[in-house]
Amino acid sequence: MMKPPVLSEEEISKTLLSLIDAYETADIAGIQRYMSRDVDIHVHELNLRGCAAFFKIYHPEKITLSDFSVKTLGDVGWGYGTITRKNSVMHFSTVFKKKRNHEWKMVHLHLSDACL
């Protein structure tokens, strides 16, 4: 019996969880694997680009991804939800684009403090 095809939403969800694992261990190569380009990692407030610059500012720690939703339309996908770090809650949104080798790559990630 053949396995049913994996849905794009499921692939993106797995990618998000893998990205979090890479962040928690400061695995720069792991993070770069899921990004469209390393330079797409941009800390706007400090005008820093790339994983190496990111980890100079943000130290890895345990975070929880919850209440997230993923949608796709053709070769574009997006997700949104909540990240909890210690007692701090942040909202996130992501945009993915599928590449030639059939992997989803992140082209945009936005994090913002949750409004109470």
Descriptive labels:
four-stranded antiparallel β-sheet; 116 residues; two-stranded antiparallel sheet; 3 helices; alpha+beta; single chain
Mean pLDDT across the residues is: 83
Structural class: alpha+beta
**Would you report the number of β strands?**
6
**End-to-end distance:** 50 Å
Radius of gyration: 15 Å
**Widest sheet: strand ordering:** 3-4-5-6
Ranges where pLDDT stays below 50 over 5 or more residues in a row are: none
With helices defined by DSSP (H or I, 4 residues minimum), what is the helix count?
A: 3
Shape: globular
The SSE string, one letter per element, is HHEEHEEEE
Content of β-strand: 35-45%
**Helical residue percent band:** 25-40%
Taking the sheet with the most strands, its summary is: 4 strands, antiparallel
